[in-house]
């Protein structure tokens, strides 16, 4: 079964969103390791390595996501982790348009960025597509190496 790591990063204590996401991803057939609220970068990384996860789903509601996610992808690289990363929630404070917010987090290394209006089903479909794509790439790489 495909495992995803889910949690709310930093000092953020908003729990309702990840509870809904946990149930939706489980119903869609994923194994969900829910780290809960106030999760540090290293807790996400350690859990992903321990559970051999295929994706990390970061939630942030309180407006400090950009600070909390600084150097997250560098720390993942240093840990030798290559997993799909999504972030979602209320990611910015103030008047930024969501396009700006998406750009900021894409540049930080997240594969996909979701706003607080996201239907969990949308993220599930996106993850199925992204993981399918990665599996196909890995399979064709294996075939290439064998030939
Ligand atoms: C309930 C609530 C609280 C409760 C939280 C209780 C709890 N334990 O969960 C309490 C009262 C404790 C609280 C505190 C604070 N809150 Co508050 N809170 C809310 C409120 C009203 C609802 C949040 C909620 O539960 N929504 C329902 C769930 C289902 O929706 P959701 O959380 O958005 O999650 C969905 C999507 O965002 C998305 N999603 C979320 N994460 C991810 C991740 C991925 C990968 C994906 C794909 C999708 C996704 O999918 C989820 C499911 O559909 C919101 C306002 C609002 N209407 O959103 C403010 C809000 C989030 N809070 C806010 C703030 C500022 C705070 C405080 C900082 C206030 C303060 N000064 O103390 C503190 C922070 C405390 C802390 N350390 O976290 C702001 C954040 C502002 C910003 N980001 O710009 C908001 C937006 C209110 C506002 N308009 O100002 N809060």
TrEMBL record:
Any one of the GO BP annotations: L-glutamate catabolic process via L-citramalate
Q: Which GO terms describe its molecular function?
A: cobalamin binding; metal ion binding; methylaspartate mutase activity
> CDD domains, per this entry?
Glm_B12_BD
Q: Which UniProt keywords apply?
A: Cobalamin, Cobalt, Isomerase, Metal-binding
Q: Name one Pfam family in it.
A: B12-binding
Cofactor(s) in the UniProt record: adenosylcob(III)alamin
Pathway, according to UniProt?
Amino-acid degradation; L-glutamate degradation via mesaconate pathway; acetate and pyruvate from L-glutamate: step 1/4
Give the enzyme's EC designation: 5.4.99.1
Gene3D superfamilies, alphabetically? Cobalamin-binding domain (3.40.50.280)
Name the residues that bind adenosylcob(III)alamin. Answer: 11-15, 59-61, 90-94
The B12-binding domain sits at 1-134
Q: What does this protein do?
A: Catalyzes the carbon skeleton rearrangement of L-glutamate to L-threo-3-methylaspartate ((2S,3S)-3-methylaspartate).
Report the protein name in the record: Glutamate mutase sigma subunit
Q: What organism does the UniProt record list as the source?
A: Haloarcula salina
């Amino acid at each position: 079964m495909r495992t995803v790591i889910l949690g709310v990063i930093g000092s953020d204590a908003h729990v309702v969103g990840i509870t809904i996401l946990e149930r939706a991803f489980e119903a869609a057939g994923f194994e969900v390791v829910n780290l809960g609220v106030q999760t540090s970068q290293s807790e996400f990384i350690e859990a992903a390595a321990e559970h051999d996860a295929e994706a990390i789903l970061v939630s942030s509601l309180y407006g400090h996501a950009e600070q909390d996610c600084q150097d997250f992808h560098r720390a993942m690289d240093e840990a030798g982790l290559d997993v799909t990363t999504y972030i979602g929630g209320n990611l910015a404070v103030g008047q930024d348009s969501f396009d700006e917010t998406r750009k900021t987090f894409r540049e930080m290394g997240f594969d996909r960025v979701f706003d607080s209006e996201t239907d969990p089903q949308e993220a599930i479909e996106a993850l199925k597509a992204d993981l399918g794509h990665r599996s196909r790439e890995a399979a064709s790489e294996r075939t290439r190496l064998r030939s």
